[in-house]
Structures are given as structure tokens and as C-alpha cells.
Design goal:
globular; 15 strands; 3-stranded antiparallel beta sheet; 41% helix; alpha/beta; 8-stranded parallel beta sheet; TIM Barrel
Length: 382
């Protein structure tokens, strides 16, 4: 009989600093193969129920969140794992990111779903390619969930990244997905407007950060969804941590004016050169190989190196909202470099009542097992 996931994670964390010093392709293949295997096993666990302190509960958009922290998109792409994280004491659970068309995920250089950790740097790289079974299937799974009070259900969606699809067809697919999730009874939606982990973006066709393009897409989402079925369902816009700080006020105004319920800063980063200084010297060989879009993969960097970026963007957005309060309820979410109670304090003080974590979650799980939320919230509540 295999050990529990928490035992496996704790053992793996002891060897990880040594594994990443192996030849780069050995490290890449080992982690890219073992990670999906671990996650498939992990989502089946049913730990003892943990309930965060009442002082952490908050109601946003009419939805009760039992805590200010929950998983970022990408952790539970297929709609599995709700009961696991709800029992752990997460403030919410976010499925996806999903697309209209089921996606197999990325393969390159003989590596499927490329992933690399940088443990002493508190960071990771991935170029997964949005593997998921599609909006319709995940919505079916979410509609069948047995809810746990205080842990609302959210889902992240993205436009299909297929370069052969027209923009009109991509929009049709996204709107259909939003409708599926409304019918499934989810509590909130998150539209992922920045994903660096697809073949399209790796080939230079996925970066459509021009604000005119963004406004056009968001206006169509407003006209075809928000004004019809999404008025009472919080729909959040997730952007990149690479967003230009000078654009933040305009983005905030655009999102609030069109009826979005909030902004999430943000997704993984492709600023490889700028982030390299925050990668420990012993891990830079693997980092450089992974981020090389020709010999490696590209993809996005997550974890501690994004801490200052996410906090800065949230702070700019919150300052603008104080100066120009929106007509509707509008909140900020911070994602990137969230690891500790101090990060949640910083998020709250900057103006983000909710935070999401991914790399920090798995670091905490390796250390604290299923008590990861309880131990962090005990520090936050002290």
C-alpha cells in the first residue's frame, strides 16, 4: 500500500533540491511525469474537516467565503478535488481553466505537460497547454457536487487558443461555456485573459495585450452574457502579472464599466530575464533550459518571484478604485507569490480581500499536509 499523499509530498520535498541538480532533461521528465500521477491520487483523498475561524469569514458579491485564500486556476483543471480542499478549510474552490474544446495539453521534446520546480527559490515553471475535458463536461461535474457550506465553487474559463479558429468562433465557445456554468449553479466565474502556456502563445500568436482588443472582447462578453444571465453571478477578469502598471487605471475602469465584478492580478509571468535574478544560482540551469522557447518550452513562471509584482498591481488598482469608486460591487484578487500569513496581510492592506495560491499551496502541503490552511489561518488570526 502506498503512503498517503502528505507523506509522499513530505518525502519528495526532501529530495527535490537534489533532483533539480540532475541533468536538466532528467529533472524535467521526472517531474513532468510524476506530477499528474500525484494529482490524480491526491484529489481522491478525504481528510478530516477543518473549519477556519469565524473571524476570517466574509461575504463578497453575496457569496460567503469562509477564508480569504483558495487555489488558483490550473490546480484542478478537470473539476476534481472540491471535497478535498473544502475539507482542508479553503476559502473557496476554483476549477479549470477550461476551454470549449477538450485539450490534451502540450508535448514537446518527448516531454508531456512540461513542469519544473525551483524549490529553494519558491518558484516553478510550467507549459501545460490548458489540458481539460472542456466546458460542458466540467460543468456537468460541478453541477453534481455536494457543497460544503462556506466553500463556494468557482470556475476559470479561457478562449480556445487554437490559431485556426476565428475570433467569432472562440467567443461563441466562451459564451457557451459561461452558460453551461450558470446552469451548473457555480458561485462565481473567472475569465482568464492571459495564458502563456499554450502552443499559440509560444509561437508568438497568443499575446494580444493591446487594450483595444481587450475592450472589444470584453464588450462582446458584456453584450452577450453579463447583461443577460451574468448580472447576478460574479464574473471576474484575470490578467497577467506582466500587465503594464500604467495600464491598470484604464483596465479597472473598463472592467467595472462593462459589469465585471472584479479583477485578479494575476497569471504566471513570461518575464524570464527580469525574474532570473530571483532564481537561486543552483537552479538557474534548469530555469534557463525550461524558459528557452526553442530548446525548452517557454511557458509561465509562478511562485515567490511574482510576490512584489502582484502586490504592486493590486495596490495600483485599489488606489484607483478609491479615487473613482465603481457603481457596482467590485473586488480585487491577488495571485502570485502568496505563501504565508504575511502575504495575506499584505493583500488585504493593499486592497485585495481574496488571494489565490498555487506554488505556495504545494510547498505548504509538503510541510503541513492537510493542515496547511489551518496552520496559516492560525497565524493570520493571532
Amino acid at each position: 500500500m502506498l503512503p498517503s499523499s502528505s507523506t509522499l509530498a513530505r518525502i519528495e520535498s526532501l529530495f527535490r533540491p537534489l533532483v533539480v541538480r540532475l541533468p536538466t532533461w532528467a529533472s524535467l521528465r521526472l517531474y513532468s511525469y510524476s506530477r499528474p500521477w500525484f494529482l490524480r491520487r491526491y484529489v481522491q483523498e478525504r481528510p478530516e474537516q477543518r473549519v477556519p475561524p469565524e473571524s476570517l469569514h466574509q461575504r463578497l458579491w453575496g457569496v460567503r467565503f469562509q477564508a480569504p485564500l483558495f487555489n488558483a486556476a490550473g490546480m484542478f483543471k478537470s473539476g476534481d478535488g472540491y471535497e478535498l480542499v473544502a475539507r482542508q478549510g479553503a476559502g473557496a474552490w476554483l476549477a479549470g481553466t477550461t476551454t470549449a474544446t477538450p485539450r490534451h495539453g502540450n508535448d514537446r521534446h518527448g516531454v508531456r505537460l512540461p513542469f519544473a520546480p525551483y524549490p529553494t527559490s519558491g518558484a516553478a515553471s510550467n507549459w501545460l497547454g490548458l489540458p481539460n475535458p472542456g466546458h460542458a463536461e466540467v460543468a456537468r461535474r460541478l453541477g453534481a457536487l455536494d457543497r460544503i457550506p462556506g466553500c463556494p465553487v468557482g470556475v476559470s474559463l479561457a478562449f480556445d487558443p487554437d490559431p485556426d479558429q476565428s475570433d467569432e468562433r472562440k467567443l461563441d465557445g466562451l459564451i457557451a461555456g459561461l452558460e453551461h456554468y450558470v446552469d451548473a449553479g457555480v458561485d462565481f466565474l473567472e475569465i482568464n485573459e492571459s495564458c502563456p502556456n499554450t502552443e499559440e502563445s509560444a509561437n508568438g500568436h497568443g499575446e494580444r495585450d493591446d487594450l483595444a482588443h481587450l475592450e472589444s472582447r470584453l464588450t462582446q462578453i458584456r453584450d452577450r452574457f453579463l447583461q443577460k444571465r451574468g448580472a447576478s453571478l460574479p464574473t471576474i477578469l484575470k490578467l497577467s502579472n506582466d500587465a503594464d502598471p500604467a495600464d491598470v487605471p484604464r483596465i479597472v475602469d473598463l472592467a467595472s464599466r462593462l459589469g465585471f465584478a472584479g479583477l485578479n492580478f494575476g497569471n504566471t509571468s513570461t518575464a524570464y530575464a527580469a525574474l532570473r535574478e530571483q532564481i537561486q544560482p543552483a537552479e538557474r540551469r534548469l530555469y534557463d533550459r525550461f524558459s528557452d522557447g526553442v530548446r525548452g518550452f517557454g511557458g509561465g513562471v509562478s511562485g515567490r518571484p511574482l510576490r512584489a509584482r502582484s502586490l504592486h498591481l493590486v495596490g495600483l488598482a485599489a488606489a484607483h478604485l478609491r479615487n473613482r469608486p465603481p457603481e457596482r460591487e467590485f473586488h480585487l484578487i491577488r495571485t502570485g507569490g502568496v505563501e504565508m500569513a504575511e502575504d495575506l496581510h499584505a493583500s488585504s492592506e493593499a486592497g485585495a480581500p481574496l488571494s489565490q495560491w498555487y506554488t505556495g499551496y504545494f510547498e505548504a502541503f509538503a510541510r503541513d499536509g492537510h493542515d496547511l490552511y489551518r496552520r496559516l489561518f492560525d497565524q493570520l488570526d493571532s
